[in-house]
Amino acid sequence: MLRVVVLISGGGSNLAALLDECDAPDFPAEVVAVGADREAGGLDYARRRGIPAFVVPFAEHPDRDSWGDALIAAVAQHEPDLVVLSGLMRLLPPRAVAAFAPRLINTHPAYLPEFPGAHGVRDALAAGVTETGASVIVVDTGVDTGTVLAQERVPVLPGDDEATLHDRIKPVERRLLADVVRGVADGTIDLSSPRSSA
User: Fold this and answer.
1) Does the annotation mark 108 as catalytic?
2) Residues 61, 78, 108, 119: which is the catalytic one?
């Protein structure tokens, strides 16, 4: 059983979907802890299920590196096989990436390398494209520049705003995340030498 730690910053809708996947008896992974950089609503999904939840508040550390060191220590207590960034709205410092790599993945609401960064949905709308997408990547020290593990196109419809488009991307993002976690667990995705699916 693949041991997964999920890191979040907000409401945790992708986390909730992954927890539901883990409830299936044939799903080969379990979320063993959920962490956040602030007290986040998504932690309640873990607490209600009796899954350990922890907070490493960014504001309590003098800089990003010291916060990253505290995060490394907190995650390591749970001995994960995979760390999933699911709405963690903070860049990990390089030594935190190095500590978890290559078993560190992230979801992103765009068809990378298109529209990286914190506002992928907004940026796609501003660019006037007819389609965007969702991606799951290996995290590196860049901004959404890691190897693509899975991605899928999502059309941009006339009249879409940021909320409606994001609402259509989220189910795709969740499905891709579950597929990648399953693939890592059953060995069909090798994170030590990932190949881009783009």
Assistant:
1) yes
2) 108
Amino acid at 86: S
Q: Write out the binding residues for (6R)-10-formyltetrahydrofolate.
A: 64, 89-92, 106
pLDDT in 10s for each residue of the chain, 198 residues: 999 999 999 999 999 999 999 999 999 999 999 999 999 999 999 999 999 999 999 999 999 999 999 999 999 999 999 999 998 988 999 999 999 999 999 999 999 999 999 999 999 999 999 999 999 999 999 999 999 999 999 999 999 999 999 999 999 999 999 999 999 999 999 998 655 443
d(CA 122, CA 126): 6
The one-letter amino acid at 1? M
Structural domains in the chain? Answer: 2-186 (3.40.50.170)
Could you list the residues known to form a binding site, using ranges: 12-14, 64, 89-92, 106
Q: Is the pTM of this model over 0.85?
A: yes
R_g (Cα) of the chain, nearest Å: 16
Q: Which amino acid is at 148?
A: V
